[in-house]
Amino acid sequence: MVDLDFRIEDVRVENYSAAPLLLFALHVVNRTPDLPVLNVMLNCQIRIDPLRRRYDGGEHDRLSDLFGDASRWGETLRSLLWTHASVSVPSVDPERRMDLPVPCSYDFNIAATKYFHGLEQGDVPLNFLFSGSIFYRDRQGRLQIEQIPWSKECAYRLPVNVWRAMMERYYPQGVWLCLHRDAFEELDSYRRKSGLPTFERALHALLGANATETA
Q: How many Å apart are CA 200 and CA 60, to the nearest integer?
């Protein structure tokens, strides 16, 4: 039985992708070198573990949309699914270092995006849960296929400043907000009737009018 160990050693931003992309430095070690690993079709579920870090007052407010009032966080802070990633790993003899590409979304309808955006500093505690298929040769030289057990996982702390640098590169001075079509049509109609050149100006006008009414 092949025994592979996985760990994440570093992360960097891919600067020339069509969409935001993080490259995690993956280190794979074959603990059974007498069984040559030819290839690994590796899948990875990446989860956020909010309990493994502290939060200050500003973060309590920004994350209330996810976890409710801070007084209830002992009950509401739970692991969040961030994303899935996959990569084909070449021969592991007895180790292999390569990049695990992880596409990132800036859609604020996604809980993980809200979590990343809500942090002011520090890091994001991540769990990488590995699965997939291992192609190897047994001691008689025969080709074999084996599944990676779900017990294979590792932890990594993603620096918040890496996430911010990536989004600033792909969306400089901006964020990505998805609207329902009906809401968009109403906003677009208001913008045109008000003679406003951009949706940003329309939102500012609506917020200013609402603040005046509230006052």
A: 27
pLDDT per position as a tens digit, 64-108: 989 999 889 989 999 999 999 999 999 998 999 999 999 999 988
- Cα–Cα distance between 135 and 88 in angstroms, integer? 11
pTM: 0.86
- CATH class name, domain 4-170: mainly beta
Cβ of 206: how many Cβ atoms within 10 Å? 15
Q: DSSP characters for the chain?
A: ---EEEEEEEEEE-TT-SS-EEEEEEEEEES-TTS-EEEEEEEEEEEE-GGGS---HHHHHHTHHHH-SGGGHHHH---EEEEEEEEEE--BSSEEEEEEEEE---BTTSHHHHHHHH--SSEEEEEEEEEEEEEEE-TTS-EEEEEPPTT-EEEEEEEHHHHHHHHHHHSTT--B----HHHHHHHHHHHHHTT-SSHHHHHHHHHHHHHHHH-
Which two tokens mark 3? 């025994």
> Each residue of 128-182: pLDDT tens digit?
999 999 999 999 999 999 999 989 999 999 999 999 999 999 999 887 778 889 9
